[in-house]
Amino acid sequence: MDHKLTVAVKEFAYTLGADLVGIAPVSRYENAPVKMSPQGILPGAKSVVVCAIHHPDAAIELDGEVHPQIMGPYSIQYIMNTKLDFLSFKIGRMLEDLGYPTVPIASSNIWRYRGYRDLEAVFAPDVSHIYGGVCAGLGELGWNGLCITPEYGARNRFVSIITEAELEPTPMYSGKKLCDMCGECIRKCPTDAYRKEVNGTKDVVIENKHHVFANKNLWRCAWGEHFDLDLDLPIPDQVDEQVLLDHVKQHGIRHGEFGVCLKVCLPKHLRQPDPDYCKISVRRKRHTIPSDLPVHSAVYDTVLSIAGKNTLDHVHFISQKTLEEQGIPMKEHLPDGVGAILLTDHIKLPCQADEAKAFRETHIMEWNTMSRTVRVNLTIAELDICRELEKIGYSALPKTYLKHDALQKLCHETTENNAILYSALILTSAPLEDRHVLDVSHSDARGNLKERLTRAAKEAGADLVGFASAFAIDEIAEQLREIRKEETIVFATDK
Length: 495
Fold this sequence. Notes:
The protein has two domains: 270 residues, no CATH class; 141 residues, NADH Oxidase. By secondary structure, the chain is of the alpha+beta class. The strands form five sheets. Strands 13-14-12-11-15 form a five-stranded antiparallel sheet. It has a four-stranded antiparallel sheet with strand order 1-2-6-3, with helices on both faces. A two-stranded antiparallel sheet has the order 4-5. The chain has 16 helices and 15 strands.
């Protein structure tokens, strides 16, 4: 076992933003089907690195209160998956660069709905990240089939990296039982998946430890979770693939579903009932900071650092006094909220303002790339700032339903000329002062431009960086235009 390498891998994962990191030897997957095992993907595999990021507590506790298919803050999970993919890829590259064949696995949303050859499992991923969390010593399986950790309950998302490096295993979790069969997942499930069509139990055995949970019908669970069917429709007593497809054809789709089994699941030692704060779930116990203390200056610097790393333009810290003077109803969205952080970024188009719409329509691929890049950077910064605020004891709510318009106006952020404005908003219990920091990722243009661009690209993860003149590209384009003149490019939209 390589202790030094194990420490280095964990340190790197935490640097990238993991909240939990564990190492599983492949022997802990001995009971997994071959096609869903580490060796089925990488025959020489010796270890699996499993990382987790936790959902911001306020997003879980406050969203989905009106209806599980009306989601705002909970949608932060989508960027959590993206961040986990970055983690997986970069850790995989680190190990590969050190000479160990490694396969980083995507975080979520990739599975086989049906069985495949000798694999009978439905909704089967390449390898189960949920079971991986248990194999890596991060937690236990609850009755709901989710990996419950002692730090965050079920409020985690996981990712796995399979490698031939022989790393030091994390001991299996051996603390107090994390699922005490409180029954909240059974009572609160909107599809009644823990009472209807349950075929006994499943038993996942890892190092002779049994993890028993409900063998629910995953097609029933998928009614809103995967197929976006309206949860207010009558759900048949028996649900299978054809039933779902028929209902989609007949009724169409509504929206994805808040994972209520995740929302209500906390081990006993983390439960803090607070019906004035949230109605469906309980709050997670964590260290908090007395609200009468001023915010430490390092908090402001940390927020600015995260914004700068994600190449944002401006950061606005807004006090409770200013919010109240402007009539902005923050406490309707975050009951203990006393401050807000507005993050902004801009895309400057190479045209005049009156030509912006035409530019986006005629350069759709370029526009989509630019827009997605800005949105990803903004949302990763939004997530990471929430995580940092929570670590030091403050509540933090991302993806709030509160409109940004009034705050953008307050902070003099507008779409002008050829610049398109994007923003993210975090509500927090941190008693912030009014501060407006502009150009947080600006740097003086000194030194050789190619060297600076090469350094920036490699810091972002590029292996090779090259440069070509626009004239050379134009010449190639002319040659390709003649070669491919008979081809048609079709953009299809699913209505």
